[in-house]
């Protein structure tokens, strides 16, 4: 059973989730490119002094390069996974959709952790609660996008499912050939 039949964004509506795969891939690739750009900006001495920024607690001398390198590698792989997602739907290979779904699940859990981290460590600042709510709205949108991709995965799985044919009663599991005695 398919979870979603259509896909809706604040600006566009798609009748089928299959037609929304290209915009989903473009969205994730663009967001990944923006985060790579921000990571490089922080690694070259850019500003990350507000506690709601992703690299607030990173040391500018060592940890920013380690975690920044991991983030850049992750988001480059996410961009490649977005390309694989589009190709997977075009040629109907479900396995190529899995890297994108795994990356999105990792991203959703990271946003959930980051929101709880902000809430626990910086609960006295009211703007932190607002930043956490915005982060979790974005996380819920990413969950919706993940469900749309999973629905396309289910649609492709239904198309590729083998069809079963019911044989006549004369066939049993022990007979190799059907023998008609009337002939």
TrEMBL record:
TM region(s), chain numbering: 21-44, 64-86, 98-120, 132-156
Keywords attached to this entry: Membrane, Transmembrane, Transmembrane helix
Source domain of life: Eukaryota
Protein name: Uncharacterized protein
Source species of the chain: Orchesella dallaii
Highest classification ranks of the organism: Eukaryota, Metazoa, Ecdysozoa, Arthropoda, Hexapoda
